Every structure is written in C-alpha cells, then in structure tokens.
Amino acid sequence: MNPHEECPDQDGRVVIDPAFKADSPARYARLRGFGPIHPAEFHLGLKGWVIVGHDWPGRR
Q: What confidence category does residue 49 fall into, taking pLDDT thresholds of 50, 70 and 90?
C-alpha cells in the first residue's frame, strides 16, 4: 500500500497547501497511521519532510 494514496501528493510527496491546512487535524492523523515521517512539498515548491510522530526502539 502506498502510504500517501489517501493524501494529496505530488511526485510521492504530501502537498501542504491551503486544502491540507483546512483539514489538518484529520490529515495529520491519517499520516500518523502510515508512519512517523513523510516527504512533503510546501509553499513555493519547497521540499522537505513532515514529522507526525516518533518511534522509540523498544517502546510500546
């Protein structure tokens, strides 16, 4: 399963745009379900990462 198949994406990146921000709590929760780190594209085409959680080895 593509971790970004339910999220707005472009070239494998989550697009952080006004539509994403308008529903950000739900979209961030959905991203957390797929993992803690996602490639993203921000305003003006800037590329980076969105961190939505953390994973500590051995933590439950």
A: very high
* Residue in 48, 37, 44 with CA at minimum distance from that of residue 17: 44
Could you give the CA distance from residue 20 to residue 12 in angstroms, rounded to a whole number?
Answer: 16
3-state helix, strand, coil split of the chain in percent (to 5) is 30, 25, 45
| Collapsed DSSP state (helix, strand, coil) of residue 9 | strand
Q: Which residues contact 47 (CB under 8 A, 6 or more apart)?
A: 13, 39, 40, 41
Q: State what percent of residues in the chain have pLDDT above 70.
A: 72
pTM of the model: 0.68
Amino acid symbol at 16: I
